[in-house]
Amino acid sequence: MNQQDFNKKFIESIRNGQNEEDLIATMKNFPRLSSSRALDVYREDYQARLSDALKNTFRSVHAILGDEEFYRLARSYMNVFPSTFSDLDDYGDQMDDFLSGHSLEEDFPFLSQLAHFERMFRIIFHSEERQGLSVLDLQAALTDENVRLRLVSSTLVLSYHFSIEKIYSSSLSDDDSPFDFHSPQNILMFKKDGLVKMHLLSNDQSEMLKKFHTPLSFSDCIKIAPATMTPAEMQTLFQIIGQEQILLKS
Questions:
Q1: pLDDT at 48
Q2: The predicted structure's pLDDT at residue 84
Q3: What is the maximal distance between C-alpha atoms in the chain?
Q4: What structural domains does the chain harbor?
Q5: Cα dihedral sign for 77, 78, 81, 83?
Q6: What is the mean pLDDT of residues 209-224?
C-alpha cells in the first residue's frame, strides 16, 4: 500500500471505522502499543476534538443537557454524520435536523430549534459584515419606484415556535427566573461592528421583512404587507431597518 492510499484509509478509519483491518495489517506495533490500540487512541482523540467543536457551536444545548448527556449526543451524531470538513469548527451543520424528533425532545421540545438558532448565530458571526443604506439614503430609496431593496447578506429573519432567544440567553447566564418558553418568537439577527445582534419582531414585522430576502420595491412590499399589520408596527420596523442599516439597493 503506497503512502497516499495509506493516508486515505487512515483518515477514513479514524472518521468512520472503515478499512481498519487493512490498516492494522500494514501497521507495525509499537513497543508498548498495538496497532489496533494506536488506531483507537487516534480515533478517541479525533472524536474528542469533534465533541469540543460541537460544544463550541452549540453552547446553549450543552449548557441545558450537561456534559454527560451532551457528549453522548455528540457521539451519536458522529455515528450518523461522520465529519467531511477540513475545519473541525464547521462540523455540526445537520445537528438541528438530527435533534428533530430525537428522544431528548420529550424533555426539551425546543432543542432542535435552539440548535438551529445557534447554528445560524455561528453562520452570521463568521459571515462578511455588510452595511446597508443609511437613514437618508433609505428614505430616498423608498420614494423611488425603480429601486429594488434586499436584506444584506449578513442578516437573517428567523421564526420559532418557542422563546429561543430567551432560552439561549438564560442557559448561558445565571438568570434562572421562570418564563414561558412555549411562546413563539421572531428574531432579526444581523452582524454589526463585529458582533451578532438581534431584535425581536412581531409576526407581521417578521413576515414583511422576510420578503426582502429577494429584491423588492417598497411600494410592492406595502401592497403585500400583512393585512393585520398596524401603522405602529410598520413605523417601528422601518426605524429598526434604518438604524441597523440592513437593506441594500439590489
A1: 83
A2: 75
A3: 79
A4: 1-126 (no CATH), 129-250 (3.90.930.70)
A5: positive
A6: 88
